[in-house]
Amino acid sequence: MKSSNLILPGIISSVVLIVLWEVACIVFSISEVILPQPSAIVLELYHNFGWYMLNSYYTVLITVAGFLISALLGVLIAVALVTSRFFERYAYPLIVGFNSVPKVALAPLFVVWLGTGAEPKIAIAFLISVFAVIVDTVHGFRSVDPDLLDLAKVLRASKFNTFLKIKFPSALPSIVSGLKIALSLALVGAIVGEFVSSQRGLGFIIMSAQGMFDTVRVFAALVLLAIIGMVLYALLAFFERKLTTYE
């Protein structure tokens, strides 16, 4: 289904949800600490728009940096796994084992190792997202049509040309699928890093507002996170169409 066919229904359902939310808060006199009205969230964003934009910009930078590193290294690691049996045999178990370790538990260590700047947050975003890239990329390379590979052998194509002209284009849809998952996970990783140690970013806003029971500010940050996630996903989907559409 085309994304254009989803926009209008999505807008309608969102408007209906917001209206029902607003009405429920008024009718049932729900405390702002428990669940703020959407109108209060909009006013919060309006009155502190510049401050929210600066913190959103910082979170986006952390997310994009972690995602780009995971995309690059994830694809390279996946290529090494499918082209080298030695690397696969000895490295893949370590990768799987390391992925099973909760990244939140590692976050304080990265603060100790890398300081309190952007580096530990980028590292956490990378670690949380890279495994999705590796798994989907490996799956893509291993799902290449065997007939195409046999044809390349018959035509005596070099390994490099076989990889560049057959394996990589065939695996591209799986790679992009992994990148979509990794992008969402990178945003989660950025927020986790900001939870642990940060003086700016949407994760910092959520943690500081939580300590003051400022639920309106928490929801405002969550709304911005949702918007950021959708915008980044839409950009990635746009590049996917450019890469996978042949005219």
What does this structure look like?
By secondary structure, this protein is mostly helical. It has a domain at 48-143 and 171-244: MetI-like fold (Orthogonal Bundle). 84% of the residues lie in helices and 0% in strands. The chain contains 10 helices and no strands. The protein has helices at residues 4-27, 38-47, 49-83, 85-99, 103-114, 118-142, 146-154, 159-196, 202-211, 215-244. Helix 5 crosses helix 6, helix 8 (159-196) packs antiparallel against helix 10 and helix 9 (202-211) runs antiparallel to helix 10 (215-244). The chain is elongated. The model has no long low-confidence stretch (mean pLDDT 85).
Q: Provide mean pLDDT, rounded.
A: 85
Largest sheet: none
Identify the overall geometry.
elongated
Secondary structure class reads mainly alpha
What is the top-level CATH class of the domain at 48-143 and 171-244? Mainly Alpha
- Residue stretches low in confidence (pLDDT < 50, at least 5 long) are none
Q: What is the rounded distance between the termini?
A: 20 Å
Q: Which band does the percent of strand residues land in?
A: under 5%
Order of helices and strands: HHHHHHHHHH
The helix tally amounts to 10
Number of strands: 0
Q: Over the alpha carbons, how many angstroms does the gyration radius reach?
A: 22 Å
The CATH superfamily of the domain at 48-143 and 171-244 turns out to be: MetI-like
Query: From the coordinates shown, what is the CATH architecture of the domain at 48-143 and 171-244?
Result: Orthogonal Bundle
CATH fold field value of the domain at 48-143 and 171-244: MetI-like fold
Give the proportion of residues in helices. Answer: over 70%
